[in-house]
Q: What sequence folds into this?
């Protein structure tokens, strides 16, 4: 059945290759005389190339330079070598507690693992020699997937926020934006603070710089300055990162009476 499947795909591949060569000739021919007709042949050539690529994905990898792609697995569980699938001549072995057991052939390490009712898992295949660990394979997969999930969650949760000012931003608006920056930093986000200059404001950049310096001084307990402050075209910007141990203080809602007015 497998042989018949490959034979059918070979016939289709040969037909598509002949069609593609015809499309190339017609495209070159018409490109000099009728460019609009050449575009039609170019579209047909692209469709033939897509069909050819689909045949490659369904079992003709050996013909087009590689193994059978349909037989390759991209699951993490199949990429990790375990027990008899480990092919290195010598490996460095680590026990379940992290202790070094030395360098030995894989069959000896497998024997030690089976005596403990565990598996031999290749955890660092690129090392010289490869590093393998005696552990429970199911537990190792669970911990690896959990760690990868936590990393993706952290990457997704951290974002770059932008807060914009003007050199003439009023005091109330300035305080609102400053509290936004503190809140973003407290949530673990990076913040790009920007002061936009327009028209004649470019001639008095010291006003915007003074406002930026004031902002950085007032949020110094919450932010680390990664970049800036510096001018980019008409924008003075600074890139801020959360400071460890710094949290966002509770922001007083607008209109709430102060302590002196209570």
A:
């Amino acid at each position: 059945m497998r042989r018949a499947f490959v034979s059918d795909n070979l016939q289709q591949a040969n037909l598509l290759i002949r069609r593609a060569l015809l499309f190339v000739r017609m495209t070159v021919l018409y490109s000099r005389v009728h460019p609009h007709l050449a575009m039609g042949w170019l579209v047909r050539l692209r469709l033939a190339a897509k069909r050819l690529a689909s045949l490659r994905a369904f079992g003709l990898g050996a013909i087009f330079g590689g193994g059978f792609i349909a037989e390759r697995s991209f699951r993490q569980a199949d990429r990790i070598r375990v027990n008899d699938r480990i092919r290195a001549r010598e490996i460095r072995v680590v026990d379940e507690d992290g202790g070094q057991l030395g360098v030995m052939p894989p069959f000896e390490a497998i024997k030690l693992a089976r005596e403990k009712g565990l598996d031999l898992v290749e955890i660092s295949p690129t090392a010289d020699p490869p590093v393998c660990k005696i552990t429970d394979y199911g537990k190792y997969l669970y911990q690896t997937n959990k760690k990868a999930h936590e990393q993706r969650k952290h990457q997704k949760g951290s974002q770059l926020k932008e807060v914009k000012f003007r050199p003439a931003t009023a005091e109330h608006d300035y305080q609102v934006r400053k509290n936004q920056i503190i809140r973003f930093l407290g949530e673990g986000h990076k913040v790009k603070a920007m002061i936009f200059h327009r028209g004649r404001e470019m001639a008095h950049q010291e006003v915007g710089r003074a406002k930026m310096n004031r902002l950085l001084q007032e949020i110094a307990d919450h932010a680390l300055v990664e970049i800036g402050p510096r001018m980019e075209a008409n924008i003075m910007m600074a890139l801020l990162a959360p400071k460890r141990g710094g949290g966002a203080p509770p922001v007083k809602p607008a209109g709430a009476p102060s302590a002196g007015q209570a």
